[in-house]
Amino acid sequence: MEFLFLAVPVVFGIGSVLLADRAVRKGCKRKKALYMQLASFCAVFLVCFLCPMVASAAEATETAAAAAGGNGLAFLGAAIATGLSCIGGGIAVGYAAPAAIGATSEDSANFGKSLIFVALGEGVALYGMLVSILILSKIG
Fold this sequence. Notes:
Layout: H1 2-25, H2 30-50, H3 52-55, H4 62-106, H5 111-139
């Protein structure tokens, strides 16, 4: 039964990706598909946040539950730091990479300069992951 509660968010997330891909292939605008993805992410987040069975799939003793309860916000903060930084990095690379390819195709001397701008977008995601590692190392 617990496996079912854990599988629901995963199946819902994969299904939303497939539906968004299908919508873009049929002619739906990419912006609308992005909003559909964000809405499905919010729905999965609410299901996981509001249903305690999804959040705690394993049975725990009272002492272990009390110890894990204090770390719950740290885990949530680490997840939010990683998730939002990766979304921001993906958006940055999504805009910088096509511009870099266009600049390189016009003049190959611009490759080094354009590569720096693409790497700056990836750096945002790496900083978010670093913050998550720091948060998780403090509770461990």
